[in-house]
Design brief:
The complex is a heterotrimer.
Chain A (H helix, E strand, L loop, with lengths): L44 H12 L22 H7 L2 H4 L11 H18 L3 E3 L5 H18 L7 E5 L5 H8 L3 E5 L9 H7 L4 E7 L11 H10 L3 E5 L12 H4 L3 E3 L2 H4 L14 E3 L11 E5 L2 E5 L15 H37 L15 E4 L1 H7 L3 H9 L7 E2 L8 E4 L7 H20 L1 H6 L11 H6 L10
Parallel strand pairs in A: 2-3, 2-4, 4-5, 5-6
Antiparallel strand pairs in A: 1-7, 6-7, 8-9, 10-12, 11-12
Helix pairs in contact in A: 2-11, 4-11, 5-6, 11-14
Chain B lengths: L7 E2 L4 E5 L5 E5 L1 H7 L2 E6 L5 E2 L4 E7 L3 E5 L4 E6 L1 H5 L3 H4 L5 E6 L10 H11 L1
Antiparallel strand pairs in B: 1-2, 2-3, 3-9, 4-6, 5-8, 6-7, 8-9
Chain C lengths: L7 H10 L30 H13 L6 E2 L12 H7 L2 H4 L11 H18 L3 E2 L6 H12 L6 E5 L4 H14 L4 E3 L1 E2 L2 E2 L1 H7 L4 E8 L9 H10 L3 E6 L10 H4 L3 E5 L15 E5 L12 E5 L5 E5 L6 H4 L12 H38 L15 E5 L4 H10 L2 E2 L2 E5 L2 E7 L6 H13 L2
Parallel strand pairs in C: 1-14, 3-4, 3-7, 7-8, 8-9
Antiparallel strand pairs in C: 2-10, 5-6, 9-10, 11-12, 13-16, 15-16
The chains are: A alpha/beta, B alpha+beta, C alpha/beta.
């Protein structure tokens, strides 16, 4: 493994320098002065460049290869998005400039907001949340404020299916709710009877992903919405899986009252190795007064910021991850109405094709056509061969494929979850299918090789137990 | 794995060992530690806190899971096993020798299972 | 423009291979009454030329000022060219969270380096991999220290308004109304703080320097907070940490802040990066991702995401925070920036900010009516009175391609919060001050 940047440091080396200071130095008084060392590395520019260039070769992105990471929508990130996000008119403006000097930014926000509302079937939007989980917290806080505003103080329960993303219950608690988990049916969808039993006077909302986390569309969605609404609750749509249905159906039309969107999944902005993302929250008119401040409005020929009447406040500084949502706007403008639908259709086509081609070897716990992703269970294979979902995943690494999501959803033992996305060709899928089958065969023919995998990477499987029991979380710089 | 005959067990996989003087030691069963995997960290209540049967008295983290610990008895916690907090891996190697907390003033809990009953319970839930 | 590679013929072949006749066969689960009728009501596809044209025009409607004296939470610092080049490498940009450690060492190691740098800057023991921004870092830190018996949250009125608003949103949602400590002469009122602290207090949040740019009496604050058994959270300006006494030296329990000054452009407010660091004892309270060092079976050094049992995907409703992304690319940017500048370079940036701000302050306050609103030690921001209506004044500066300080109302009086960085030259300062003089 490569050395740390601290380990290639040499005292006295410099990279970037400043012009000579043209005013007198001002010393910080002793009482308020830093008196401990600050051991940042000292490197030459060439060393810096080689260090991070070489590290980048030990990273794997969508640009490197197939990345069927379920629930993450690792679609191709168009390069024009990067060019637009690098325009100086967007990168060099201060967030506290007068509104008349940032009309371009406000227009971009307004246009994007409008298109996202049309795509989701909602009436109003905030672009402030920085990620999906941040959007969940925001949307749920709006629901909380809405129920309190109606005087429904007893509505403190949030219903979440047991197949939900972990962020759902965690965000619910952050927003002050008590979580009521409801089980899924053996078919992997919402258990209507369990839902009927769970709703009541204390129901604030139901939080749902549709298609759900096993890749199935909740076909009873209209009935589900009716049950929750009749009980006085609202419906929250976790937009993580919107890529399957955009342009075909809209959360607003399904009966949802509020949704967050993951622009870094559905709308092609790159994931950056774990952010920055963007998690706008769109809602129906009844929730609009509770949106975080500020929102962008258009009056008398000019764009301006406004504060919604009963705003929950702000969830971060300024207006969100601006350069991220500029990329999403670029994408939506590029592919247009027809491209949105085309993306969803092909995401679903690609997922079904892979599932169909894999199901004679791997177990597919939920039958029928899937949406944009599907789940395989390695449980039976593990009983037969001792090979786990993780072993299969590591075998795929050696085939140059980023493994699927492992051990999620929690309701499927030894789960592998695949989401090929629409931006992969049939050739790529066929190669991947071959690789999956080869790894499957290895589980029987040469299980030890799978247990030893991966062998093609700079390091083998790390010792995670030691990492947790004796955490080393930073480098101790010796000087 | 043989279950110690002198212990009683809850359906949430804690064990209790009653002492003569009305105190009791609480721990995690072998089944629980195996399901959890390599234990890495233990969060426990403070000494002096009182609990009712079934209350959460802490949680135990492994590398990729976490489980709540529910007290199988009612009473007041007199001791927390500090040694175990520093060496949580002992729960894996010696679950029945690794007590988490000691309670005082406990009455026998009739809802608990004896070794035979717990074994049967495990077999049924497999 | 379309990014779908499969040809129409291929799509047909794939359907055929699955025994389906048309795409619709895959969508039967979606009821007819919730379908989009026809096409979405948004414009159709456009070519790259058209999209670029439209968006370049939009960007052109923004005014990029040549000179900037505005900060208040977003700072214009110089970003060496090497930073953008390296952080823009596609392998970093298009990767996901490093779930598969073996093929993600190039993402994990920089996170480990980032954590080390944040520890070096703040003097604290443990850093997480980053959070959304400085304001949410403060809000997460407040939540992190709330316990069953200690729920009260106290915040100084001298913190940045947006940070305060964010803390309010988070705390209110979770059921706690924060107590705000009033300001006295632009700094935290120590007597009021002493009164508010009690044995139900979880934590106190302050900023060093504060919103007005003033350096707070942090040692006295730390002593008061700790005497009450509460935790001290210090919001910091990372550049200033190169010269100012660190949170660790004050004994703070958490250091948080906005890392935008470390190599991120102003970008109309984002993406930025929040940093969070604590003492070893509070490691497991930290929200978000953390990378750790370990070895593989062959004994090679390897990096992994670790201590994951704290997080939402395992702990679900008991997680404390739902955050999962760490603004990784921003953290990488900050790491490369800190390495590019090095310890001497960052110190020099801080020294120049401080020196130029003091020169500017001297010049501005020499203009009639532009007195310091509050006296006290400052780093690179300071508040002065404004003897004229700030709006036309700032418009006048704007005509000269200068973004002046931020107009704020303080105790009913007009004031301007100025910010100076290494980007500002003496000549710029002099020119700006001459315009102030003309406007009297």
């Amino acid at each position: 493994m490569s050395m740390l940047i601290f380990e290639i440091s040499k005292p006295g080396r410099r990279c970037s320098t400043l012009p000579k200071c043209d005013v007198d130095f001002v010393a910080v008084p002793e009482e308020f002065k830093r008196n401990i060392p600050m051991n940042l590395p000292e490197v030459a520019e060439i060393d810096l460049v080689r260090h991070y260039t070489n590290l980048s070769r030990n990273a794997f992105g969508v640009d490197n290869g197939f990345y069927p990471l379920g629930s993450c929508t690792m679609k191709y990130n168009p390069k024009i998005n990067e060019d637009v996000a690098a325009l100086k008119g967007f990168t060099a403006v201060h967030p506290l400039q007068p509104e008349e000097t940032v009309q371009g930014s406000l227009e971009a926000m307004h246009v994007l907001g409008d298109r996202l509302c049309k795509i989701t079937g909602m009436d109003a939007i905030t672009l402030q949340p920085a990620a999906g989980a941040h959007g969940e917290f925001t949307g749920l806080s709006m629901i909380k404020a809405y129920q309190l505003d109606k005087g429904e103080t007893q509505r403190n329960k949030l219903i979440v299916p047991d197949s939900a993303h972990g962020t759902n219950p965690a965000s619910a608690v952050m927003a002050g709710f008590t979580v009521v988990n409801i089980p899924s049916t053996p078919e992997g969808t919402v258990d209507i009877d369990a839902l009927k039993k769970a709703v009541g006077d204390d129901t604030a909302a139901l939080m749902l992903t549709n298609p759900n986390t096993v890749g199935l569309f909740e076909k009873d969605i209209v009935k589900i919405a009716e049950i929750v609404h009749n009980a006085g609750g609202l419906l929250y749509y976790d937009g993580a899986n919107l890529n399957a249905v955009m342009g075909i159906t809209r959360p607003g039309d399904m009966g949802f009252d509020v949704t967050h969107l993951n622009l870094h999944k559905t709308f092609s902005t790159p994931h950056g190795g774990g952010g920055p993302g963007s998690g706008p929250v769109a809602c129906k008119a009844i929730l609009a007064p509770f949106l975080p401040a500020p929102v962008v409005t258009f009056n008398n020929g000019a764009y301006t910021f406004a504060k919604p009447a009963k705003s929950i406040g702000r969830v971060r500084s300024f207006y969100g991850n601006f350069l991220v949502y500029i990329r999403a706007l670029t994408y939506i403008m590029s592919i247009g109405a027809e491209g949105i639908r085309e993306a969803a259709e092909n995401a679903v086509l690609n997922a079904n094709y892979m599932m169909e081609m894999l199901k004679d070897s791997y177990d597919v716990p939920f039958g029928g056509p899937c949406m944009h992703e599907f789940v395989l269970s390695i449980e039976r294979l593990k009983k037969q061969t001792g090979i786990s979902a993780a072993d299969i995943a590591k075998g795929l690494v050696d085939k140059g494929i980023h493994p699927p999501t492992m051990y999620f959803p929690l309701i499927v033992p030894e789960a592998l979850m695949l989401e090929p996305t629409e931006t992969e060709s049939r050739e790529t899928l066929d190669n991947a299918i071959r690789a999956f089958k080869e790894v499957y065969a290895m589980a029987f023919d040469n299980p030890q090789a799978l247990r030893d995998a991966p062998l093609t990477t700079p390091v083998g499987r790390p010792d995670e137990t030691t990492a947790v029991r004796n955490p080393i979380l930073s480098y101790t710089v010796n000087n | 794995m043989k279950l110690p005959e002198d212990l009683f067990f809850s359906k949430t996989h804690e064990w209790v060992r009653y002492e003569q003087d009305g105190t009791a030691f609480i721990g995690l069963t072998d089944h629980a530690q195996e399901a959890l995997g390599d234990v890495a960290f233990i969060n426990l209540c403070d000494e002096g806190e009182s609990f009712e049967f079934g209350d959460v008295i802490g949680d135990i983290e492994s590398i990729k899971a976490v489980t709540d610990v529910y007290t199988p008895v009612s009473g007041t916690v007199t001791h927390v096993n500090d040694e175990l907090l520093d060496a949580p891996e002992k729960i894996n190697s010696d679950p029945y020798g690794s007590w988490l907390v000691e309670f005082e003033g406990v009455a026998r809990n009739e809802e608990l299972l004896d070794a035979e009953g717990y074994e049967k319970f495990l077999a049924e839930t497999e | 423009m379309s990014y779908v590679p499969n040809t129409l013929a291929q799509r047909e072949e794939m359907l055929l291979a699955m025994g389906k006749t048309c795409l619709e066969d895959l969508f039967t689960a979606i009821p007819a009454d919730v379908r989009v009728d026809g096409k979405l009501d948004i414009p159709g596809a456009q070519s790259e030329i058209e999209v670029l044209g439209t968006l370049e025009e939009m960007a052109g409607k923004n005014k990029v000022f040549k000179t900037c004296f505005r900060g208040a939470g977003a700072y214009r610092h110089f970003i060496p060219g090497v930073v953008r080049h390296l952080a823009g490498r596609a392998e970093f940009v298009t990767a996901y969270t490093p779930y598969q450690a073996e093929m993600s060492q190039g993402v994990l190691q920089p996170i480990f380096e980032y954590q080390t740098m944040i520890c070096e800057l703040t003097g604290m023991d443990v850093s997480n991999a980053g959070v959304y921004d400085g304001a949410s870092a403060a809000a997460e830190a407040v939540a992190m220290f709330q316990e069953r018996k200690r729920t009260k949250v106290i915040v100084s009125a001298t913190v940045k308004p947006m940070v305060l608003e964010t803390i309010m949103t988070y705390s209110t949602a979770a059921g706690t109304q924060p107590v705000i400590i009033s300001a006295k002469n632009g700094k935290t009122d120590l007597a009021a703080l002493a009164l508010a602290l009690d044995d139900t207090t979880a934590c106190f949040y302050m900023e060093q320097p504060n919103y007005y740019g003033l350096v707070e009496d942090a040692q006295q604050i730390a002593d008061l907070v700790h005497a009450a058994g509460a935790k001290l959270i210090m919001g910091c300006y990372p550049t200033a940490l190169a010269v100012l006494k660190t949170p660790a030296e004050y004994g703070a329990d958490a250091a948080v802040g906005e890392a935008q000054p470390l190599g991120m452009s102003l970008a109309f407010g984002g993406p930025y990066l929040g940093f969070m660091a604590v003492k070893t004892v509070d490691t497991r309270r930290l929200p978000g991702r953390i990378a750790g060092q370990t070895t593989d079976k062959a004994g090679r050094t390897a990096y992994v995401l670790t201590l994951q049992a704290r997080e939402q995907h395992i702990r679900r409703e008991k997680a404390g925070s739902s955050i999962c992304s760490n603004q990784a690319l921003c953290a990488l940017t900050a790491t490369i920036y800190c390495a590019a500048l090095g310890k001497e370079g960052l110190r020099e940036v801080a020294d120049q900010c401080c020196a130029k701000a003091h020169y500017a302050a001297e010049q501005i306050t020499s203009v009639k009516g532009y007195n310091f609103t509050y006296d006290g030690l400052f780093f690179n921001e300071f508040l002065t009175d404004c003897p004229v209506d700030p709006e036309p004044l700032l418009a006048k500066l704007a005509e000269n391609d200068i973004l002046g300080g931020l107009a704020i109302k303080e105790n009913g009086k007009s004031g301007i919060l100025w910010c100076v960085t290494e980007m500002n030259t003496k000549a710029e300062i002099d020119r700006m001050v001459s315009i102030l003089k003309e406007a009297i």
